[in-house]
Write a structure and sequence with these properties.
CATH topology: Alpha-Beta Plaits
Pfam families: HPPK
Radius of gyration: 15 Å
Catalytic activity: 6-hydroxymethyl-7,8-dihydropterin + ATP = (7,8-dihydropterin-6-yl)methyl diphosphate + AMP + H(+)
Distance between the termini: 26 Å
Strand content: 25-35%
Number of domains: 1
Bound molecules: adenosine-5'-triphosphate, 2-amino-6-hydroxymethyl-7,8-dihydro-3H-pteridin-4-one
CATH class: Alpha Beta
Shape: globular
Keywords: ATP-binding, Folate biosynthesis, Kinase, Nucleotide-binding, Transferase
EC number: 2.7.6.3
Enzyme class: transferase
Amino acid sequence: MTVVPCAIALGSNLGDSRKTLQQALTALHQNRYIDVIAQSSLYKTVAIGPPQPDILNACALLETSLSAQDLLTQLLVIEQHFGRVRRERWGPRTLDLDLLFYGQSIITEPALQVPHPRLRERAFVLIPLAEIAPHWRDPVSGQSIRSLRQAVDPTGVQPLGPIGGFT
Ligand SMILES: Nc1ncnc2c1ncn2[C@@H]1O[C@H](COP(=O)(O)OP(=O)(O)OP(=O)(O)O)[C@@H](O)[C@H]1O
Ligand SMILES: Nc1nc2c(c(=O)[nH]1)N=C(CO)CN2
């Protein structure tokens, strides 16, 4: 059985966001095909996009025996479980789970792009991810997460400490 290391981003700005992120990590942990290897601190971040409340963001490293498509399906199932309703693009959400990396794969399908196409410009992704995977190499740019993180403006990304709830 092949096990693939992956990275995901978590975000929430509706409801009890800290609890939602904790419960999302617990749901991933409970999936028999997914191991949660590491989780970043929690960050309060200024929302990029339409005006809306600040967002709680974090990242996690996983190992999975699922295909990238099946892992995305599991992420979408967990989002739905937390009542995510899609309205405007980049609007407020109870839970957003993005697949950032699936090993060193490059996937460009309509429903799945990996590495996540916007991760290189996102301080709210790169700062938490650099905590847990500084040496991970982005297969598209060839750069490490640490060097991508050093290139973004950290303004508006404030650490809040451990996510808590899940160990
Ligand atoms: N790497 C990926 N991770 C998560 N969803 C992806 C990915 N690539 C493509 N998608 C597709 O995008 C859809 C999710 O769009 P969504 O509305 O959550 O975007 P968003 O997270 O608000 O914005 P952004 O994609 O800029 O982070 C999913 O239904 C999925 O099919
Ligand atoms: N701060 C912040 N801004 C965003 C976020 C997010 O998770 N955090 N997600 C977006 C679309 O996924 C768009 N804008």
